[in-house]
Amino acid sequence: MKTACARIKGFEAMGTLLTGQAKAFQLQPGIRGELRLVERAFGIGPEMTSEPMSLHGAVLEKIAILQGF
Questions:
Q1: For 67, left (φ over 0), alpha (ψ -120 to 50), or beta?
Q2: Segment 1-48, tens digit of pLDDT
Q3: Environment class of residue 33 by beta-carbon count within 10 Å: exposed (0-12), middle (13-18) or buried (19+)?
Q4: Whole-angstrom Cα distance, residue 44 to residue 36?
Q5: What is the rounded distance in angstroms from the CA atom of residue 49 to the CA atom of residue 51?
Q6: Which DSSP string do the residues of the chain spell out, in sequence order?
């Protein structure tokens, strides 16, 4: 039963990626965003709250470098 549930979840995830329905939930564009979305769906990647914060931190770091901090 556990394997069947994971398989169906995988089919659904791939279907939403192929039809473009998952774009609203992607934090990054392109294949990286799709990969992160699948990782979060199956609980094998970064946590949903930690990934946006790390992306936000990278942007702030770039701004600080540009401003000479």
A1: alpha
A2: 888 888 888 888 888 888 887 777 777 778 888 888 788 777 776 665
A3: middle
A4: 9
A5: 6
A6: -HHHHHHHHHHHHHHHHHHTTTGGG-SSSHHHHHHHHHHHHHT-SS-TTHHHHHHHHHHHHHHHHHHT-
Place of tokens 């990278």: 58
Q: The whole model's pTM is what?
A: 0.48
Residue type, 11: F
- For 23, the token pair is 């774009």
Contact (CB, 8 A) for 13 and 41:
yes
